[in-house]
């Protein structure tokens, strides 16, 4: 009986490990990039997947079939199809596809020489929105969600020599999706982030966590985990600059928890110090750079490393500077975050979905704290259990990928969601899930404002007792109200927590000038910024803001000819990279705030 129990436990543990494999810090591993020219076929009727009776076709495009002789009928051919550079979004890679929503098939070959005792994984940084991935004509699996990474173990399926990958990508907006059918950003479809082969030994370090123990400055704790549940394996944790060389041994799940005494220099926007950390198994080293810091709230203050901090932020969409389309490159991150730093920011709200890993790592290097968010946005289907499972999986994957990034201080679970009991239950479950996974960061969400009575607006959201920071979006003076109202509006935020303005803003066409009360002028936007910042600065508990938004961005909801032309014009920088007057209003305010908090 004991033997059976043992094997059942081993099997369960293995299943657990196999399902939860995370490939933590994929860029620190032995990778072969599969970026580059991929063939693609546009397939608006999913003809490559279904037969004419709408049954799945066993000989779909994923077979990458070729006519064997001159009488063969094959009505597609990846080899003669057009090519597209991957990663990209098809909307900006091919102007005929700018408005296209539907299916596009992608295909490429790669050569491989299997190494004895090695495993091989196929990794995607993100595919928007629904991806079916095939290797050599066989389905590897499917991934739903446009902004989180996924991978497949192809060790037993990859062939010696030439192999081919086919990816069926569909970006149809669906009511039960996350996000749902309505959003104020372009629905960029495609393989939008890096694609890589990852090679590892049979047993390797797949996951780890290295951080300051919550509430302490003299102990580093966490764990290192193998992909297989092997007990008694030796591992090493090295942090040379702290004189740490810790020998670890795995438990029966293949995990080695640790706690070491150390007093690292703390990471902060002013001193973005990171330490080289090496995790070693059987002579193979997985290296990362770790930022050590503490973040907490105390009454109405946010404390970074025990000191009150004002979040001098800006919201950012993952839209490439100058070229538009999905940002996916290190240089995109450097430009976007460089503008934020130039404005005096110490914080960025990466809206409304997890951004690519370059953005988070570059923010950490530059000294920018990060708000990271899942696209539980507007009218999500709160009653649908599949929708909840999708949202929770995206939350899980966001936390798993970035849990070692000290710069990330806030996980956000929603944006501007309408009140209902079902919505509250949905969001409370997400908060509970996030806290259970990671008790070291703050949880928030972008709420909406409540009623205004006698010139005082209240915040009244049941979620106030579940989040650490009361964050809300308010567009007084743009969506409702007049600029004048900003001079007299009062705020009733009846919670003993910091409050954060996750969005305010106004549209302005760069270069359009006029009176302060003329919509779409830079003067109107600048005046709204000036009056809004002064308004909140008078309210007790004002702990920061991330105005909407750093750069103009494409949106299908912005049709005003000559002004919007499918751009949301609330950027403080135009889509050509030209700063508007509001940029300097915000920069000036942040300069004052930086001095005010410097000696707190
Ligand atoms: C909302 C929403 C943003 C949107 C913005 C706007 O607050 O959160 O995604 O782009 O307002 O209307 O410009």
- State the fourth-level CATH superfamily of the largest domain: Glycosidases
Question: What would you say the CATH architecture of the largest domain is?
Answer: Alpha-Beta Barrel
The number of helical runs is 8
User: What name does the CATH topology of the largest domain carry?
Assistant: TIM Barrel
CATH class of the largest domain: Alpha Beta
Give a summary of the structure in a few sentences.
With 600 residues, the chain is α/β, with parallel strands linked by helices. The protein is 19% helix and 30% strand.
Structure notes:
With about 600 residues, this protein is an alpha/beta fold. It contains eight helices and 36 strands. The protein folds into three domains: about 35-200, Jelly Rolls (Sandwich); about 205-280, Immunoglobulin-like, CATH 2.60.40; about 310-600, Glycosidases (TIM Barrel), CATH 3.20.20. The strands form nine sheets. Strands 23-34-33-31-28-27-26-25-24 form a nine-stranded parallel beta sheet. A six-stranded antiparallel beta sheet has the order 3-2-4-10-7-8, with no helix packed on it. Strands 1-12-5-9 form a four-stranded antiparallel beta sheet, with no helix packed on it. The chain is globular. It starts with a helix and ends with a helix. Mean pLDDT is about 95; it is low at about 10-20. Alpha-D-glucopyranuronic acid binds near residues 415, 416, 473 and 568.
Topology:
Elements: H1 2-20, E1 31-33, E2 36-42, E3 83-86, H2 90-93, E4 103-112, E5 118-124, E6 127-128, E7 130-135, E8 138-144, E9 150-153, E10 161-170, E11 190-191, E12 195-201, E13 205-212, E14 219-226, E15 234-239, E16 244-249, E17 255-261, E18 275-281, E19 284-290, E20 295-298, E21 301-304, E22 307-308, E23 311-312, E24 315-316, H3 330-342, E25 347-350, H4 357-366, E26 369-373, H5 385-402, E27 408-415, H6 421-437, E28 442-448, E29 452-453, E30 456-458, E31 470-473, E32 490-492, E33 499-503, H7 522-537, E34 542-545, E35 553-554, E36 567-568, H8 581-598
Parallel strand pairs: 23-34, 24-25, 25-26, 26-27, 27-28, 28-31, 30-32, 31-33, 33-34
Antiparallel strand pairs: 1-12, 2-3, 2-4, 4-10, 5-9, 5-12, 6-11, 7-8, 7-10, 13-14, 14-17, 15-16, 15-18, 18-19, 20-21, 21-22, 29-30, 35-36
């Amino acid at each position: 009986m004991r033997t059976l129990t043992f094997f059942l436990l081993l099997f369960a543990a293995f299943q657990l490990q196999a399902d939860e494999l995370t490939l933590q810090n994929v860029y620190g591993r032995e990778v072969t990039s599969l970026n580059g020219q991929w063939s693609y076929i546009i397939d608006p009727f999913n003809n490559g997947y279904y037969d004419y009776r709408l049954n799945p076709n066993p000989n779909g495009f994923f077979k990458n079939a070729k006519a064997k002789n001159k009488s063969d009928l094959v009505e597609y051919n990846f080899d003669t199809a057009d090519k597209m550079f991957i990663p990209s979004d098809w909307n900006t890679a091919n102007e005929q596809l700018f408005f296209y929503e539907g299916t596009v098939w992608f295909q490429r070959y790669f050569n491989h020489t299997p190494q004895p005792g090695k495993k091989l994984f196929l990794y995607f940084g993100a595919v928007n929105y629904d991806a079916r991935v095939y290797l050599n004509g066989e389905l590897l699996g499917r991934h739903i969600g446009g902004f989180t990474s996924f991978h497949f173990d192809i060790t037993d399926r990859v062939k010696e020599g030439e192999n081919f990958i086919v990816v069926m990508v569909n970006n149809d907006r669906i009511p039960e999706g996350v996000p749902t059918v309505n959003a104020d950003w372009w629905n960029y479809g495609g393989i939008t982030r890096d694609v890589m082969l990852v090679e590892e030994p049979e047993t390797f370090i797949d996951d780890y966590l290295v951080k300051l123990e919550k509430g302490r400055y003299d102990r580093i704790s966490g764990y290192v985990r193998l992909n297989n549940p092997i007990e008694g394996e030796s591992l090493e944790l090295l942090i040379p600059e702290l004189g740490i060389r810790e020998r670890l041994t795995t438990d029966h799940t293949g995990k080695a928890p640790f706690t070491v005494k150390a007093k690292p220099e703390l990471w902060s926007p002013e001193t973005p110090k990171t330490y080289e950390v090496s995790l070693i198994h059987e002579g193979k080293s997985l290296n990362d750079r770790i930022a050590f810091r503490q973040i907490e709230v105390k009454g109405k203050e946010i404390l970074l490393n025990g000191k009150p901090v004002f979040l001098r932020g800006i919201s950012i969409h993952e839209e490439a500077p100058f070229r538009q389309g999905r940002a996916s490159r290190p240089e995109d991150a450097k430009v976007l975050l460089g503008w934020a730093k130039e404005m005096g920011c110490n914080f960025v709200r990466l809206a409304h979905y997890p951004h690519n890993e370059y953005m988070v790592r570059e923010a950490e290097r530059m000294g920018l704290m990060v708000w990271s968010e899942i696209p539980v946005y507007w009218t999500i289907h709160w009653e649908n259990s599949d929708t909840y499972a999708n949202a929770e999986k995206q939350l899980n994957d966001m936390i798993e990928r970035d849990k070692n990034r000290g710069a990330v201080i806030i996980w956000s679970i929603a944006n501007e969601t309408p009140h209902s009991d079902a919505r509250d239950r949905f969001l409370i479950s997400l908060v509970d899930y996030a806290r259970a996974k990671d008790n070291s960061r703050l949880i928030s969400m972008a709420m909406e404002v409540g009623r205004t009575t006698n010139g005082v607006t209240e915040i009244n959201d049941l979620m106030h007792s579940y989040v650490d920071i009361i964050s809300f979006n308010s567009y007084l003076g743009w969506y409702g109200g007049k600029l004048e109202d900003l001079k007299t509006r009062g705020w009733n935020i009846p919670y003993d927590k910091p409050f954060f303005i996750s969005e305010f803003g106004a549209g302005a066409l760069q270069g359009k000038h006029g009176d302060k009360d003329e919509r779409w002028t830079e003067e109107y936007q600048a005046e709204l910024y000036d009056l809004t910042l002064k308004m909140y600065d008078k309210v007790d508990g004002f702990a920061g803001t991330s105005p909407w938004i750093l750069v103009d961005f494409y949106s299908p909801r912005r049709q005003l000819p000559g002004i919007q032309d499918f751009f949301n014009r609330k950027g403080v920088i135009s889509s050509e990279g030209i700063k508007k007057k509001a940029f300097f209003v915000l920069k000036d305010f942040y300069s004052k705030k930086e001095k005010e908090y410097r000696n707190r």
